[in-house]
Amino acid sequence: QVQLKESGGGSVQTGGSLRLSCIVSGPPLSAYSFGWFRQAEGKAREGVAAIDRDGTPSYSDTIKGRFTLSKDTAANTLYLQMNSLEPGDTAMYYCAADHVEWWKLLRPSVYNYWGQGTQVTVSS
C-alpha cells in the first residue's frame, strides 16, 4: 500500500517560486512511477511532471523549463521545484503513484494512489 502526503503549497506573486514535497510511505521510490498533477477550479486534472521507475522525468509543455521534478531516495520523497510562477499555475497540486507505462505517465486516469493535495495560489 502506498501512502502519499504533499506539502509546500502557498501563496506567491507572479514570478515567485515554491517547492512542493511528496513524502512516500510504503515502498521505495524505485518500485513505482510517480506523477505531479494539478486541478484548477472548474477544470479537469492535468499532468504536470512525472518520473518513471528508472528515474526518467517527463514534463507537460505548459510548465516545461519552469518546473523541475527531483527525488531523494534516502528520504523517500519527491519534489517539484516551481519557478517563474504565473497566475495560470494556481491549482491544487497532487502527488500520485502507480505502475504506469512511460507513455501514460502524465495521464491522471491511470494512477490509483493519490495524496490529499496542496494548494498553490499565484497572484498577479
Task: Describe what you observe in this structure.
- This protein has 124 residues and is mainly beta.
- It contains no helices and 11 strands.
- It has strands at 3-7, 10-13, 18-25, 33-39, 46-51, 57-59, 67-72, 77-82, 91-98, 113-114, 118-123.
List the helices and strands and how they pair.
Blueprint lengths: L2 E5 L2 E4 L4 E8 L7 E7 L6 E6 L5 E3 L7 E6 L4 E6 L8 E8 L14 E2 L3 E6 L1
Parallel strand pairs: 2-11
Antiparallel strand pairs: 1-3, 3-8, 4-5, 4-9, 5-6, 7-8, 9-10, 9-11
Keywords:
124 residues, mainly beta, 7-stranded mixed sheet, 4-stranded antiparallel sheet, 11 strands, 49% strand
In short, what is this structure?
The chain is mainly beta.
Cα Rg: 13 Å
What series of H and E elements makes up the topology? EEEEEEEEEEE
Number of strands: 11
Q: What is the arithmetic mean of pLDDT? A: 96
Residue share in β-strands: over 45%
Helix content: under 10%
How many helices? The count is 0
Judging from the principal axes of the Cα atoms, what is the shape?
A: globular
Structural class: mainly beta
**Are there runs of 5+ residues with pLDDT below 50, and where?**
none
Q: Please outline the major beta sheet.
A: 7 strands, mixed
Distance between the termini: 40 Å
